[in-house]
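User: Please look over both lines:
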Amino acid sequence: MMWSLVSGVLLLSTQIIAVVIYIYSFIPLVWNEAYLKGVEPERETLFYVLFLGVSVVLMTLGVKWILPKMSSPDFRRKFNLWLALEGVWCFLMVFCFFKWTSYRYPFWNVLPYENPSWVPPFFCVVCGLSIISKVFFPEINNFYKHLQSFVAVERCPRLYTIAFQALSIGGVVLLLFIPNPQNVTALALVWDQWNHLDRVAGWFIRQGWYVNYEQTVQILVVLAIVYIVGLFYFIRLWLKSWLLAGTGALLAIKMGMFYYGSAPCIWVNPANTFLAHGWDIALFFGLWFIAFKYPKKFYGAAALAGVLLVYGWFKSNGFLDALGFDDQPMMAPLRVRQFFPFLMGFFIPLFYVFSLLVMMGQKNTQDRSQLRLPVVICIYGLMIFVDYLEHPMIGYYGSLMVPAILIMLWWLRQVFHSSGILVRRGAYAGIFLLVLGALLTNRLMLTYPNIIFQDDERFAQDRAYAEHFDAIAQSAPLIRRLIQEGQKAVVLSNFETALLMEAKRQPLFKDFPVMTSGLDKGPGGLNLKTKRQCLELINSLADENALYVFVDERWWSQGPQELGDSGLNAVLSYIRNHYQEYTRQGFLVALQRR
């Protein structure tokens, strides 16, 4: 009882001091000469003394008036409800102060633009709600009694579950859909020269589908929405909780799209999202179906899926990457102060291993079949974490978090499984609201160009640059004129994906895009890792006997000595021996076979 009283006093004192600090921030010290020169005086000592004084006064009043009533069970129940409400208001007030401090003195300022204007109004709303809850606490107490009887029902009415699903899916669409994708493509041009977006757009071009960058972004957004909705329903089927399903979907959005490694916008580098392994949603549903319908065949199907994953990994990445010979050292992030991704690189595998050991040790579990799916999810999470081991950087861990989120939700269900339905649903609802608040107040979420958060000024400079970027329009007609429709083009240049997109021609090379792009005066580089890839590129030139080759004039102007022993030098040496200059247009040099 005494500890409950102490907690109430501290929560109330913190709220009072928070309001005093906010009001005090508007009081200018006009009589202080240093303040007039822009120096802000320290006020922490005054606030600390006020906090101590308020706490002592409130504790004295509590001991005299509140503590004697604690013997009544009904009063203790009301006091605990009041304590929970005060904890919520105190948390939100302190959250506002920390959020404002991080905007003013960011620990890691990865964004050149911020949106802190929502913090002061939000703080005022929280203060108002805190006062209202104290004034109308008897009415809140009566509402809570009725809410208890409603929540205690084992099965919610079908209308409420339908409404929750509709709100969840609609909320995902509102949060993720981008009405003006040209803003994102302009940003991607300025920040990244479309290098990472080219991976996705280039796949469509290889198939002969000439979608532009705006359409590529829209396709990615739609796929992300489909993935999150699918994850939502998978968690509902597996863990049998709508609240856990909503929490998992929000966590996947937060940890897979809106983290510091995804700045300035996640679609500049879509490989850093959960879509990097987007096919795993089909794997989850398939494994759940087999576990539910054919439990005896579950481990056989899981083993087959694992073999196929390993085969696909070696096939797509090659032995050099798959065996880890091209990895960066795990200590590399510390050199650039990327402590969080360094921590994730150790914590997530340990979390999987710890969960596996606990599952394997549960011999007395009544239904061990319930452990099959989480065991396989842990193993799958460890398998795909090889991607992070290759590049332990801040921009990679977000694409690998879905299995970890699923296991975290499984642990939540285990913790509250034996609790009463009221406690369990209350805990799930509290976690859901906490995750929702973390997502909606995330700095990257507040600058994401979705339907809700529109800021035309943010992309003004990027759009202006993209509108005046006419190099592609000047050079692409040369490819369209010399390469007949249906023929494949050989392009070794900056912005080769954009050029073929504009010319509506497919690339000859299997490894596409071949080059990286850059906006500076110097040329980019070869986008190939191994000698085998360079030889395959040269062999494809010889086998296809291409009549024309298009090379960036910046690369063509460099001699063999300047390029050194690079793979690009080997490729260009072959071209110089077998091709001669035919014509020029824009920044492209068209070469004709000798």
DSSP finds 27 helices and six strands in the chain. The chain has a mean pLDDT of 83. The CA atoms of residues 295 and 329 lie 41 Å apart. The first strand starts at residue 488 and ends at 489.
